[in-house]
From TrEMBL:
It comes from Kalanchoe fedtschenkoi (Lavender scallops). Residues 23-329 form the PPM-type phosphatase domain. Its EC number is 3.1.3.16. One of its GO terms (molecular function) is protein serine/threonine phosphatase activity. This is protein-serine/threonine phosphatase. It comes from the Eukaryota. The lineage of its organism: Eukaryota, Viridiplantae, Streptophyta, Embryophyta, Tracheophyta. It is an enzyme of class 3 (hydrolase). Keywords: Hydrolase, Magnesium, Manganese, Metal-binding, Protein phosphatase.
Length: 362
């Protein structure tokens, strides 16, 4: 936080993909920050009818964001609610599962590997001494068993990440959010926020923080963290007398279910490094303008990142890591023409989705 390079790293990690329902582009850039702590996940074919996209904005380190990018979608897939068609419950449970999985010996070991803190020799020794012989963290079964070892009492990482996830199945969009990353949909050129930025000064967040024994100073929890919900941040989740939803910081995600319609143009998921510089409507307008002459979605994402990058670090805005995923909906997924009256207007999305030009506070 506040540690900047002498010049920004503007190399970008970009990707494009599509299927018969949608196409997407994404880009991420380190920028002025001393390290890259964002991660992302893009699975247009999570299963035969479902697409999954996630942006994970790390703070205090990169490992929790990388952990979520590796495991969160897997936990959604393997939850029994997902098989029953209840995607909202499955993703809700997956957020809490991330905190559970990062505890103990195996959680410590996986975070150490993701953080490049185990070299080849010590990693090999760690594996020989503490790893179950038949276990592989990348196995299809993903059987997260408890391991005995010197870090069996590890309570979890003190770094963390926000998590904004969008899951599309047929005509339904499920958005889950913990933190101040954001998902926005463009409906007939109008920006609608599909998530709420979880800042400590929001009344429901402030009430929970204070009741759990925390305080807010200068807009930060205990003078440190400037967001109220996150995965990780174990130091803020140590009250044994409170459920996970009522800790000073909680991974508890808001879930928003939206019915897609013919008026929907695209969906954007991005970390606060973008929203600190552009409002939701400004970004939607910029993308629409770019789509007139550019068809490659990752190129549009690249241009957004370049537009948001600050020329200097004087103000602090435009100096953060930046990650953005742009998902363009192919019109054939929006309706079954035989069932839906083509003249019927789309109603505004529910929940924290009224048209807004609000820019996130720092």
């Amino acid at each position: 936080m506040g540690i900047y390079l002498s010049s920004p790293k503007t190399d970008k990690s970009s990707e494009d993909g599509e299927n018969d329902r949608l196409r997407y582009g994404l880009s991420s850039m380190q920028g002025w920050r001393a390290s890259m702590e964002d991660a992302h996940a893009a699975y247009p074919n999570l299963d035969a009818s479902t697409s999954f996209f996630g942006v994970y904005d790390g703070h205090g380190g990169k490992v929790v964001a990388k952990f979520c990018a590796k495991y969160l979608h897997r936990q959604v897939l393997r939850h029994e609610a997902y098989s029953a068609g209840d995607i909202g419950t499955a993703v809700h449970k997956a957020y809490f599962r991330m905190d559970e999985m990062m505890r103990g010996q195996r959680g410590w070991r996986e975070l150490a590997v993701l953080g490049d803190k185990i070299n080849k020799i010590s990693g090999m020794l760690e594996g020989l001494i503490w790893s179950p012989r038949s276990s592989d963290s990348n196995s299809q079964l993903d059987d997260w068993t408890f391991e005995e070892g010197p870090h069996s009492d590890f309570s979890g990482p003190n770094c963390g990440c926000t998590a904004i996830v969008a899951i599309i199945r047929d005509n339904q969009l499920i958005v889950a959010n913990a933190g101040d990353s954001r998902c926005v949909i463009s409906r007939k050129n109008q920006a609608y926020n599909l998530s709420r930025d979880h800042k400590p000064d929001l009344e429901p967040e402030k009430e929970r923080i204070i009741k759990a024994g925390g305080f807010i100073h200068a807009g930060r929890i205990n003078g440190s963290l400037n967001l109220a919900r996150a995965i990780g941040d174990a130091e803020f989740k140590q009250n044994k007398y409170l459920p996970v939803e009522r800790q000073i910081v909680t991974a508890n995600p808001d879930i928003n279910v939206v019915e897609l319609c013919e008026d929907d143009d695209f969906i954007v998921l991005a970390c606060d490094g973008i929203w600190d510089c552009m409002s939701s409507q400004q970004l939607v307008d910029f993308i629409h303008e770019q789509l007139k002459s550019e068809s490659k979605l990752s190129t549009i994402c690249n241009r957004v990142l370049d537009r948001c990058l600050a020329p200097t670090t004087v103000s602090g805005e435009g100096c953060d890591n930046m990650t953005m995923i742009l998902v363009q909906l192919k019109k054939q997924i929006h309706r079954n023409e035989s069932e839906v009256d083509s003249s019927a207007p789309c109603r505004p999305p529910d929940a924290a989705t009224s048209p807004t030009a609000q820019t996130s506070s720092n």
